[in-house]
Amino acid sequence: GGNGGGGREEAGTGWGGMSKGDGAAKQANTLPMAQRRTLKLTGLPPQVHIGSLAKHFSPFGTVVNVQIKADHESGKVHKGTGKPFNLSYVQFASHTAAKACLASPTPILNNRFISAVWANINLDEAAAQQPSPPNSPKRPGAAAKAAAAPAVSGLSKAASLIQQSLDGARQLYDRAMEAGVLSDERREKMEANILSLEEKLESQVKMDEAEKVAAAQAPAGAEAAG
């Protein structure tokens, strides 16, 4: 199997969904092979995180940048979670390291459904080509909302228990993936479990926040009344 050999490259659009007519994409498509240091991965399950990718690729050489985003182009949905698969761009410090990674017969994260090809452009060059966004108007309440977001240490007892379960599930998953002992069915079940715990934690934190706000808005002395 392997990761697709050294020849294949990203088809169609350039970085960030630019059409081939864009100057940036034209430049990207003519990037000499010897200057390419970035791989494009597709078929990533939704819960794969940057840390596990960086850890997998570091034996091939220094990893300088990893980006993950939802792959809406493929239209494929992860069976276990119903969410779209992700794609990722991984940039190495050298062309040699990226080439060694592509040539490796070991499946990425021991998942034979994840494939890798040469990206048309390196991440640092893509970032330099992106126009800087205009100053967006500040949304009312955004700062207050950010200030109200609880620190992990400030989680309620219920949220802390969910967080512990989530940490345990992630560690178990990472260890099993490294050992390569998971069947596709078991892997999908573990991925679905991690995502459901993440959603559970998020909704618990929101509930805790709503309770705090309600308590803060209650008239003083209301608790003592009655």
Automatic annotation (TrEMBL):
Organism of origin: Heterosigma akashiwo
Keyword terms, alphabetized: RNA-binding
- InterPro entries in alphabetical order: Nucleotide-bd_a/b_plait_sf, RBD_domain_sf, RBM26/27, RRM_dom
Q: What is the lineage of its organism?
A: Eukaryota, Sar, Stramenopiles, Ochrophyta, Raphidophyceae
Q: Which GO terms describe its cellular component?
A: nucleus
Protein name per Swiss-Prot or TrEMBL: RRM domain-containing protein
| GO-annotated molecular function | RNA binding
Check the record and name the Pfam families matching this protein.
RRM_1 (PF00076)
The chain positions of domain RRM read: 37-128
Leader sequence residues: none
| SMART domains linked | RRM (SM00360)
* Disordered: annotated span: 1-25
**Domain of life (superkingdom):** Eukaryota
